[in-house]
Design a protein that fits this description.
Number of helices: 2
Distance between the termini: 40 Å
Amino acid sequence: MKKIIFLLVITACFSSCKKTYTCNCVTTFTYPGTSYPDDTYSSTPDISYTQNMSKRKATAACEHEGKNINQTYTNMRTGNGQTNSSAGISTKCSLK
């Protein structure tokens, strides 16, 4: 009986380590050498991970999302690499 209770407590501890996380991303465009102000955009809505995952996996997924958003904006600005863009693009994502 004690073994069963011990296993239930251990299982509860490990299952509580996994949570649902939300990723918030902010993209900033800079225009060096011009008088244009920087533009900042937030991803709306925040990206929710519906499956329970560890913080480590959620952080990796959020960073990957930031790279994808940054590449998408870069492709939009450059016509998928056909033209040059003087705009600097930076996307930063963090977990909530």
